[in-house]
Amino acid sequence: MSHDWAEKIAQQLLSRNLIQSGTCLILGAADTGKTTLAAALAKRLAERSPVGIVDADIGQSHIGPPATVGWALVDNPQVDFSQLVVSGISFVGDVTPTGHLLQLTAAIVQCVRQAAKAAELIIIDTPGFISGPAATALWWTVQRILQPKLILAVQRNDELSDILAGLQSLDSQLELIKSPPRIPTKSPQGRRSYRQSQFSKYFRDSRLYNISLNNVAVQTSRNLSRNSLVHRLVALRNGKGVDVAVGVITRWEPEKDIAIVRAPKIDIQQIRCLVIGDVTIDIGNE
Hints:
CATH superfamily of the largest domain: P-loop containing nucleotide triphosphate hydrolases
CATH topology of the largest domain: Rossmann fold
Structural class: alpha/beta
Strand order of the largest sheet: 4-3-2-5-1-6-7
């Protein structure tokens, strides 16, 4: 049902020439069809030229691991989105925007700028974070920075009204889209299970790295004890501020100037900063 709806909406938008280049921002609550619509648009547009997809749904990530914004290039209209090759990630540090609005905004902007080097059109899929003043301020700020040419507001009723009230007179083209009925709602347990599967997939071929704390900066927004760092998610960031990978801390021994981090295969010599997040995960015994 949702796939037929997404194909129909994509065809309507393309027939009106609303999406040619620039940035398209898709807003909506959870389980309203945003990701399905983003995929349908990307596949149709990829028939003309490559399209950049930025996945900002940090709790239910399809591109890159949870707690990150990820982006990928769609250059084949037949592509299976589960098989997209991740082109880059930007660490937010948690699976919810709450308490991490600065990090999420910076991550979205960084991924859009990276994707814009490879594609003329960027589609941003967003989390279902739409309620309250913080959510309103977040999307107003993202619009202000990125100036998307098109904003697609996918809603069941009028749940986006507060956000849209501050966007209606701006230069971005605003399109209201009715969410399809009968989209299955994911349970909290289902969402947790999906995140765990995504983490397991990401760390499947990981290895341990010894990192000298003398050679890296350490960034954290919390007062953390040594014991609380074990199993904590951490970004491995290079000197240009790009997140090369996400890792999990397995040992933290500042008195020995050593941290041991499990992460996918990378060139550990290029890492200049460890950014400690607020998520702890257990990916099995070492």
